Amino acid sequence: MNNVFGEVREEKNHEYFMRQALREASKAFDKDEVPIGAVIVMNKKIIARGYNQVEALKDATAHAEIIALTSAFNFLGAKYLPEATIYVTLEPCAMCCGALFWSKIARVVYGASDPKHGGISLHKRLLHPKTIVEKDVLSQECLGLIQNFFIKKR
After folding, report:
1. What is the rounded CA–CA span in Å between residue 143 and residue 149?
2. Smallest Cα–Cα separation from 104: which of 77, 85, 117?
3. Pick the catalytic residue: 10, 15, 55, 65?
4. Taking a C-beta distance cutoff of 8 angstroms, is the pair 69, 87 a contact?
5. How much is the pTM?
6. 91 assigned to active site
7. What is the pLDDT of residues 96-150, one digit of tens each?
8. What CATH number is given for 6-153 in this structure?
9. Which residues bind Zn(2+) (predicted)?
């Protein structure tokens, strides 16, 4: 999209925000963490970011979604996110789906599906009934980052 000065401005759509989540996932990759990233958006503005920090924090619950949720709650001074969207590079696990359920988040948008551990694929009712789910946004990029991480590990 061009503005009046002829500069190209990236439209803030699902792909834009998923690219921001991929930036977070890259931070995890660089720190030798499983590269999953998340951003939480309200009114087309990022209010929170997170990436996996399980190894660094020695905490099995330090998933990107949990870190982003905690940041969003602190930023807003609220415990619910009924007007927010989370963009996450990999389908949330059952634990993260539970946290998303309790947050009452409006929308979950994820990149790559996780057939082994995905809480949405395996357990359809783990999210709040009003939560809208959209998947496969930049799925190849999201999956590629994770695959490259595990190739590097071998």
Report:
1. 10
2. 85
3. 65
4. no
5. 0.91
6. no
7. 999 999 999 999 999 999 999 999 988 767 898 999 999 999 999 999 999 999 9
8. 3.40.140.10
9. 63, 93, 96
Residue ranges of the domains in the chain? 6-153
Contact 127, 4 (CB under 8 A): no
**93 appears as a binding residue in the annotation:** yes
Per-residue b/e over 23-54, b at no fewer than 16 CB within 10 Å?
ebbebbbeeebbbbbbbbbbeeebbbbbbbbb
Query: What's CA 108's distance to the chain center, in Å?
Result: 8
63 is in an annotated binding site: yes
**H/E element, 39:** strand 37-42
97 is in an annotated binding site: no
Residue with tokens 């330090």: 62
pLDDT, tens digit, 9 for 90 and up, residues 61-89: 999 999 999 999 999 999 999 999 999 99
- Strands of 37-42's sheet in order across: 45-51, 37-42, 85-90, 107-112, 132-134
> Three-state SS across 90-106?
ECCEHHHHHHHHHHCCC
Give the Å distances, CA to CA, from 38 to 3, 9, 43, 65, 151. Answer: 29, 22, 17, 6, 22
